[in-house]
């Protein structure tokens, strides 16, 4: 069996996606996601110029060997561009293998470990009361877990506050939007939001919050401590994690569960965090961390330390990643939760998929493969549009972490 072609498809049904379609000599094809928000075309080039020529003629059944070939063979290891390209190939090959086996991917991975994948939705509002109402709407939709982000008094554009109710798209402009960040205002406000949410909705809903890399370790420790009475499911990306040791300081000050990893590429980014038990949830995901082959390795390592998965699932992860993640989540023994930020109808139309939402849970469906396809004719009607994520500065103009 041979790979006869591999095509990179760029489409913008509301937002940009990069998709790889691998075709075999036996008529079976597989689809993989290679989207890197705000830097999409670099992965297109990496795939077209440097990966696709190496794939032609290879046996698509040798998933592990092809993974190692692309990882070790490049000499230059890791990084978001390389690992997304590898993920796209890997996911397309798992799709092909599962289709050939006539199985949904979760069956090929080892079968179901659970009946459904608990997801969390994104509730946000311009101010505290709007956010409280937004959480209520998610509860009405059946969600068991909800991430709450709110505008902060005195901060003009806080992270996570969108326009509209179900969809939030941060990559919103042809050049980066400039936002201003004020840590003191945020730290004073955030506990009030969760205090109010518990007053209104009681102890039952799982509540999550994303700090989005804005705090120093000691500030994160203070926030975690202040949030303890409100029983958060997790506090996410409390501080940047290049220095994994930073989390030790947060851990020393709070029992609020910690989640991190949406920008991690490999097991090496999370090794110290996991083996020193400095986190509770690892958020690496299929597209960001080298596909099913590598994420499985991260999850198995995490299981040794009772760290559970919490895959990133924002809208810049295409339905191909969402579908694949749901098969992974259905199988992985140490599953924690899956992020679910709904795609727009335009996006869903370009990527017909087998997964569905019911009562707070997503189900991957039983179609052979990962169950997500791409409508190439429709995709061609949505040409690429440059779109950047915002940047953040402190009130005195210093660059900060968005
Ligand atoms: C999340 C994330 C996203 C990111 C986005 C960047 O937890 O969902 O932090 O909203 O900002 O994926 O492209
Ligand atoms: Mg996040």
Architecture blueprint of SSEs:
Blueprint (H helix, E strand, L loop, with lengths): L2 E9 L5 E8 L4 E5 L6 H16 L7 H11 L6 H22 L3 H5 L7 E9 L2 H13 L4 E6 L27 E4 L1 H19 L4 E5 L6 H11 L4 E5 L9 H8 L4 E3 L6 H9 L5 E2 L8 H13 L4 E4 L7 H13 L3 E5 L5 H6 L5 E3 L2 E3 L12 H5 L10 E4 L4 E2 L2
Bound molecules: D-gluconic acid and magnesium ion.
The site of magnesium ion (MG) has 5 residues, from loops.
CATH class type of the largest domain: Alpha Beta
CATH topology-level name of the largest domain: TIM Barrel
The Cα radius of gyration reads 20 Å
Mean pLDDT, to the nearest integer, reads 97
- Give the biggest beta sheet: 8 strands, parallel, barrel
- Reading the helices and strands in chain order gives EEEHHHHEHEEHEHEHEHEHEHEHEEHEE
Distance between the termini: 46 Å
Describe this structure in words.
This protein is of the alpha/beta class. The protein folds into two domains: 3-104, Enolase-like, N-terminal domain (Enolase-like, domain 1, 2-Layer Sandwich), CATH 3.30.390; 109-367 and 381-400, TIM Barrel (Alpha-Beta Barrel). The chain is 38% helix and 19% strand. It has helices spanning 40-55, 63-73, 80-101, 105-109, 128-140, 183-201, 217-227, 246-253, 267-275, 291-303, 319-331, 345-350, 376-380, and strands spanning 3-11, 17-24, 29-33, 117-125, 145-150, 178-181, 206-210, 232-236, 258-260, 281-282, 308-311, 335-339, 356-358, 361-363, 391-394, 399-400. The strands form three sheets. It has an eight-stranded parallel barrel, surrounded by four helices. Strand 10 (281-282), helix 10 (291-303) and strand 11 (308-311) form a beta-alpha-beta unit. Helix 2 (63-73) packs antiparallel against helix 3 and helix 6 runs parallel beside helix 7 (217-227). The longest helix has 22 residues, at 80-101. The radius of gyration is 20 Å and the shape is globular. The mean pLDDT is 97. The site of magnesium ion (MG) has 5 residues, from loops. D-gluconic acid is lined by residues 37, 170, 210, 212, 262, 314, 316, 339, 389.
């Amino acid at each position: 069996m041979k790979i006869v072609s591999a095509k990179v498809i760029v489409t913008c049904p509301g937002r940009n996606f990069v998709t790889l379609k691998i075709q075999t000599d036996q008529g079976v094809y597989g689809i993989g996601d290679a989207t890197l928000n705000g830097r999409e075309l670099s992965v297109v080039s990496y795939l077209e110029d440097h990966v696709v020529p190496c794939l032609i003629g290879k046996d698509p059944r040798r998933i592990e060997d092809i993974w190692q070939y692309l990882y070790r063979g490049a000499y230059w290891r890791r990084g978001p561009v390389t690992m997304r390209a590898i993920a796209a190939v890997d996911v397309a090959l798992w799709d092909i293998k599962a289709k050939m086996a006539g199985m949904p991917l979760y069956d090929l991975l080892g079968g179901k470990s659970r009946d459904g994948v608990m997801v969390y939705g994104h509730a946000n509002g311009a101010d505290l009361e709007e956010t409280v109402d937004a959480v209520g709407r998610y509860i009405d939709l059946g969600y068991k877990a909800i991430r709450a982000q709110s505008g902060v008094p005195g901060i003009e554009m806080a992270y996570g506050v969108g326009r509209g109710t179900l969809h939030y798209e941060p990559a919103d402009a042809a050049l980066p939007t400039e936002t201003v960040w004020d840590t003191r205002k945020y730290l004073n406000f955030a506990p009030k939001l969760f205090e109010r949410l518990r007053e209104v909705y009681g102890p039952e809903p799982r509540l999550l919050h994303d700090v989005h890399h804005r705090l120093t370790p000691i500030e994160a420790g203070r926030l975690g401590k202040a949030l303890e009475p409100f029983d958060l499911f997790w506090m996410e990306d409390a501080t940047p994690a290049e220095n994994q040791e930073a989390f030790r300081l947060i851990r020393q000050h709070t029992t609020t569960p910690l989640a991190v990893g949406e920008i991690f590429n490999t097991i090496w980014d999370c090794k110290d965090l996991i083996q020193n038990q400095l986190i509770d949830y690892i958020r690496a995901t299929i597209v960001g961390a080298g596909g099913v082959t590598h994420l499985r390795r991260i999850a198995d390592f995490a299981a040794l330390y009772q760290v559970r998965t919490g895959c990133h699932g924002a809208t810049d992860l295409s339905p191909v990643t969402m579908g694949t993640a749901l098969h992974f989540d259905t199988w992985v023994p140490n599953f924690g939760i899956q992020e679910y930020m709904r795609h727009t109808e335009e996006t869903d139309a370009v990527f017909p998929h087998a997964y569905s939402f019911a009562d707070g849970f997503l189900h991957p469906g039983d179609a052979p493969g990962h169950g997500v396809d791409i409508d190439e004719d429709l995709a061609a009607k949505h040409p690429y549009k440059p779109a950047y994520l915002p940047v953040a500065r402190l009130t005195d103009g210093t660059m900060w972490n968005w």
